[in-house]
Structure formats: structure tokens, C-alpha cells
Write a sequence for this structure.
């Protein structure tokens, strides 16, 4: 078969607009961990001259992508939120999974989440929260360390060794975690092997005290693991054996249905 001629923008550097790239890098500074920035800090973080950053910030603010606070700092504007919402709605995975996850949440009465792996963190695409669950303010668009979550460990377990070593570093194990968290990749490796063998992952007060969850994978038409679904519960109400015995079959059945709709032969 002849080589396919590449026409994507990434392969055509002559079409790159450097000013636009710099503006996008400014927007990328705003994260859940640091949602507010000063202009001077943006300049320092990007290595861009302060006058240039100031002009870009003024432009982004005028277009609605940044809002200025009374302190003079900036935060993402409504236009950024609109783009994020449109991106999530554009994901076929979310549209396919949402009705079945709502049914799972209603059947169990517990919190149900859908996440994908981004770097060494999990990104929440769907969160159906039981009001009784005591956790941090996690919502759609939030990210958490993969090494402390059931979905994160599940998705890490399906990476090859080279990618696992690239994604997970000492910095992946942050200071905020529960009492049973593993604090290095070496500690985690045997558990990841068990997850690959068993097909599900458990989080047992590793993310936070009093919180447990069980996660299973979603697979696409090629059989590749593309996301994870979990049910999160209060540890005081749900011993580990009860989770695997009662919630395990329900979440596995739900995941098979979603995977089948994604075209997975194992769905």
C-alpha cells in the first residue's frame, strides 16, 4: 500500500501561527490546582516577555476567554467553559455511556464516575454523585492522581511497561492521599499485575479516608481499554467483600453493555 500523504496541520509547520500558539499556552496554565494567575506570573511561567503577555491577556479577555478579578488577577472566562462543554458533548463515549451510568447510579444509589487517563492523572468525564458521599469537590473536568484512584490504577495496569514508566514518576505520588495509599511505582506494580489478571480495580481508602471504590474497564472496537467506570462508596457502609460481591457484578454488566455499544467484541 502506498504511503499516505500527510496533510494534518501538525505536519505542515508553515501553517503554524506562533502568536496563536503562545495564547493557547497561556490558557493551558489555568488548571484546577491553579485557576487564577497574575500577568507577571504568566510571563515567568511561559518565558514570554511581560509586554507580549499583557497584550495577549488583553486580547483573550476582550474575546471572553479570560475574566479579570477585582484583585487584577485573571481566571478562565465563559468562552473557555463553553469550549470545554462542547468538547465533552462531542465525545461519543460520553453520549453512549451516560444513560447506562445513570441507570447504574439509580440501581446502586451510589456515586458513579467515568474517567480517562491523561498523563499521570484521571480526568472525570461523567460524575453522578450520591449526596451522602463525603469527598473533595470533584466534578466533570476535575483530575486526580491516577495512582490513588480505582479507575487510575485500572488504566495504568493496561499500559505497556515503557509507557507506565514514562507516565508515573515520583511526582505522581503527591502528599494528599488516604491512609492506605501506595507511595511508589515499585509498591504499586504487584497490584497492577493483579488488576490485569482480575479485570477490575479497588481503591481502599487510598484517595481519602473513608472512601472505597471499584472500577472496571471500557473497551473500544479494537478491544483496547479506553476508559474506566467506577462506583464510589462510604467505607463504613461497604466492606471490600460486599463491594466485590454486590457492586462488582452490576458494574461489570454495565461496562459490558457500554463496551458492546463502542464495538468491542468482548462487550
Amino acid at each position: 500500500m502506498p504511503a499516505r500523504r500527510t496533510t494534518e496541520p501538525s505536519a505542515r509547520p508553515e501553517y503554524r501561527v506562533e502568536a496563536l500558539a503562545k495564547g493557547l499556552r497561556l490558557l493551558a496554565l489555568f488548571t484546577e490546582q491553579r485557576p487564577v494567575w497574575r500577568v507577571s506570573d504568566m510571563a515567568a511561567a511561559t518565558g514570554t516577555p511581560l509586554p507580549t503577555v499583557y497584550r495577549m491577556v488583553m486580547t483573550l479577555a476582550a474575546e471572553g476567554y479570560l475574566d479579570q478579578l477585582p484583585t487584577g488577577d485573571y481566571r478562565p472566562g465563559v468562552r473557555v467553559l463553553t469550549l470545554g462543554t462542547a468538547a465533552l458533548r462531542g465525545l461519543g463515549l460520553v453520549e453512549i455511556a451516560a444513560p447506562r451510568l445513570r441507570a447504574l447510579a439509580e440501581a446502586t444509589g451510589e456515586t458513579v464516575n467515568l474517567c480517562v487517563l491523561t498523563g499521570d492523572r484521571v480526568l472525570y468525564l461523567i460524575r453522578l454523585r450520591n449526596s451522602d458521599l463525603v469527598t473533595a469537590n470533584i466534578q466533570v473536568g476535575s483530575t486526580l492522581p491516577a495512582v490513588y484512584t480505582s479507575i487510575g490504577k485500572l488504566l495504568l495496569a493496561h499500559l505497556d511497561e515503557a509507557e507506565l514508566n514514562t507516565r508515573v514518576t515520583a511526582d505522581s505520588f503527591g502528599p494528599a492521599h488516604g491512609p492506605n495509599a501506595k507511595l511508589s511505582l515499585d509498591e504499586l506494580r504487584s497490584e497492577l499485575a493483579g488488576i490485569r489478571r482480575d479485570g477490575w480495580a479497588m481503591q481502599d481508602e487510598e484517595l481519602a479516608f473513608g472512601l472505597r471504590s471499584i472500577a472496571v474497564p471500557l473497551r473500544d472496537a479494537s478491544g483496547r481499554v479506553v476508559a474506566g467506570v467506577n462506583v464510589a462508596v462510604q467505607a463504613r457502609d461497604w466492606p471490600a467483600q460486599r463491594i466485590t460481591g454486590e457492586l462488582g457484578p452490576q458494574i461489570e454488566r454495565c461496562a459490558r453493555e457500554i463496551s458492546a455499544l463502542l464495538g468491542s467484541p468482548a462487550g
The domain at 90-261 is CATH 3.30.450.40 (Beta-Lactamase). The chain has two domains: 16-84, 90-261. Strands lie at 66-68, 74-76, 111-118, 121-128, 143-145, 201-204, 211-219, 225-234. The first strand starts at residue 66 and ends at 68.
